[in-house]
Specification:
By secondary structure, the protein is of the alpha+beta class. Helices cover about 20% and strands about 40% of the residues. It has 4 helices and 15 strands. Strands 3, 4, 7, 8, 11, 12, 13 and 14 form an 8-stranded mixed β-sheet that branches. A 5-stranded antiparallel β-sheet has the order 2-1-9-10-15, with no helix packed on it. Strands 5-6 form a two-stranded antiparallel ribbon. A hairpin with a 2-residue loop joins β3 and β4.
Length: about 200
């Protein structure tokens, strides 16, 4: 599960600042949000345009069929079998650029949750695989999740499907690569406990 992530744009986040520049060329200065990202926020994602990676602003979450709330994640292992996700998986894949994401672990007492922040070791960018589609003339996306690897399992049983930098173009443009990638594990992460 991924219910909140970060998109920081201070000077040390060079990869994120490239995304900001692409967004501001389209929408104007100050149009790109930064900081904590929540469901339904309109945020930067990467999409394929021709044979080039481009950035756009999309809202996070597909509307539920009953109109109550949003679907923010999709299980990568079963996305091809689900009506809501099968078409986007074939032709509307995207990448969610971030600087990390949060996850919460229930305390043993059952009275609260501990908050953790996850990043890739030695990197200041985390690229999550996603799907997008149009809903009432608005483009929206979901984050694909997969089973937790050894770095995530002590905190939660699910995690985002994380792409390495060398996989980004293939995820957007190579259908065969994407079909196989949804079944593979994400790279190991490092976590930091955050005080409540």
């Amino acid at each position: 599960m991924c219910g909140r992530y970060t998109f920081y744009t201070s000077e040390e986040y060079r990869e994120m600042n490239r995304v900001v520049r692409m967004i501001e060329e389209k929408y104007g200065k100050g149009s790109c949000p930064s900081g904590d990202i929540y469901p339904d926020n309109r945020v930067p994602i990467l999409v394929g345009q021709g044979q080039k990676i481009d950035a756009d602003l999309l809202a996070w979450g597909f509307p539920r069929w009953d109109g109550k709330g949003l679907i923010i994640n999709a299980r990568s292992e079963t996305a091809a079998e689900k009506k809501t996700f099968a078409y986007p998986l074939k032709s509307k894949r995207c990448i969610i650029p971030s600087t990390g994401f949060y996850e919460w672990k229930k305390q043993e007492t059952g009275k609260g949750k501990d908050k953790y922040y996850f990043t890739l070791p030695g990197k200041n960018s985390v690229y999550m695989a996603g799907l997008f589609n149009a809903y009432e003339d608005q483009l929206r996306f979901v984050i694909l999740t997969t089973g937790a690897n050894a770095s995530m399992a002590p905190i939660h049983h699910r995690m985002p499907l994380i792409l390495e930098n060398h996989e980004l173009k293939d995820w957007l443009f190579d259908d065969q690569f994407a079909a196989g990638r949804v079944l593979k594990a994400s790279p190991l992460l490092e976590s930091r406990f955050l005080e409540a």
